[in-house]
Design a protein that fits this description.
The complex is a heterodimer of chains A (129) and B (360).
Chain A (H helix, E strand, L loop, with lengths): L2 E5 L3 H13 L3 E5 L2 H11 L3 E5 L7 H8 L1 H4 L4 E6 L4 H9 L4 E4 L5 H12 L9
Parallel strand pairs in A: 1-2, 1-3, 3-4, 4-5
Helix pairs in contact in A: 2-3
Chain B lengths: L4 H15 L3 E6 L4 E4 L1 H7 L3 H4 L4 H4 L2 E2 L12 H8 L3 E8 L5 E13 L2 E11 L1 H36 L8 H31 L7 E5 H18 L3 E5 L6 E5 H17 L6 E8 L3 E8 L6 H6 L12 H4 L5 H12 L2 E7 L3 E9 L2
Parallel strand pairs in B: 8-10
Antiparallel strand pairs in B: 1-2, 1-6, 3-4, 4-5, 5-6, 7-9, 10-11, 11-13, 12-13
Helix pairs in contact in B: 6-7, 7-12, 8-9, 9-12
Classes of the chains: A alpha/beta (129), B alpha+beta (360).
Amino acid sequence: MARVLVVEDDPQLNITYDILLKKEHHIVEHAFNGFDALEKMNEFKPELLLLDIRMPGMDGIEFLRQAQMPKNYPQVKIIVFSNMEQTEQLEEAQSLGAHRSVLKSSVSPSQLAQLIRETLALAPAGSKL
Amino acid sequence: MQTKPQSKQSAQTDALFESIGEGAVATNAEGNISRINTRALNILGLKADEAIGSWFPGTIVACDEDGKIIKPINRAITRTMLSGRPVSERTFYKNSSGKAVPVFVTVSPVIVDDKPVGAVEVFRDISSEYEIDRLKSEFISIASHQLRTPATAVKNFIGLLREGYAGELTEEQHHLVDQAYISNELQLEIVNNLLYAARAENEQVRLKLIQGDLVDLIKTCIEEQSDVMKERSQKLVANLPDHKVMITMDRQFIRMLIENLLTNASKYTPDGGKIIAELIVDPYFVTLKISDTGVGISHADRQKLFQRFSRIDNELSTVRGGSGIGLYLVKRIADLHNYEIKVASEVGKGSTFKVTIPRS
């Protein structure tokens, strides 16, 4: 069980992640863009972020930049949702602290659940293996 | 009456040159401009006395879409001079205010007594075609992005049902949800193909070439198709080397190429059939072979196989559906990479698509 913040602007997609994560016994909160997510970081104190790249207002990359994730939130794991044509943004997200990425339109719910389990099991940033 | 024949001929040539509806420039063997018509001067924002006598590639500067200057050695005019053959291409010319104007150029050598004495270039301002092309690609891109999000939400809802997150389904319910899954996968495939076709069709497309492992990429693509193939009780055999095979590629495009060959093989193979993905490594070439035990393609149909929106009629094409973009995109991606693609097929027995990739 973990506290998961879903940062995604599409309401229908949010419903699907909400159902999946609750069925997988996680505690879920939603943010609809980067601004919203910045506020909820301290309020909700997530252990894992599911972060979309394309969002109106502040996008996923800008959020990572402003939040300074590895420095300010070394314990928080980040999975970035991407599309196939976003190679460059994906590289940038990785350099800004994202742990994993997943193709939004090609992952099934159980595959995503598995990826979340694996990502949560990763060692926190800066810790020695 | 005796006139000066030379100047009369010259005046006629000038008039002829001037009356060409497109920009026209003539050079001598050294590449210096000997004639230029008003249309050319207008497109480039030049004055005749600035151009006449000057070196063509220095005065008429070619660049890419972003204004990056193309070296004289890579210009159509130079290639014509060196090869003695006509060259046509789309490029951009910098006008006097520094703007990159899209042009279509054709350069031909002027040959007298078997010796090249210069070249003539005719070029057309294709700004409006270019703009239409850009708008078309942009429209397809935006439309596809907007379609993909709801299609992805449907995929997730169906996935939650199929994977038992909403409780056990009856056999009948499972069957219906599986059909919805297949339709949705097709929808996502079409959206992705449209997005990539819009990109690949752009004449100015720039490949993001990297050194990548082809074996790993094929495995990823197979993994993605495994659900649909399982649904059709198809067996997939992968004969891949147990080591990395590095090639130069645009990873996204090559991924689309492999995915499309695999979906195509699965789509046109009856339930219970077999699909083989094979990678043969030679010192100079890597060959990707995707074979199936499907319906096959007749000789006549093979002619239109790679054309856009062409659909081949067979007993599976109506059941399995398609967009007519998949194989067109495969061919276009292969062409962009200078990969060769061949197809062998026998009706009722199956097809083999072979992509030959030069090793870097």
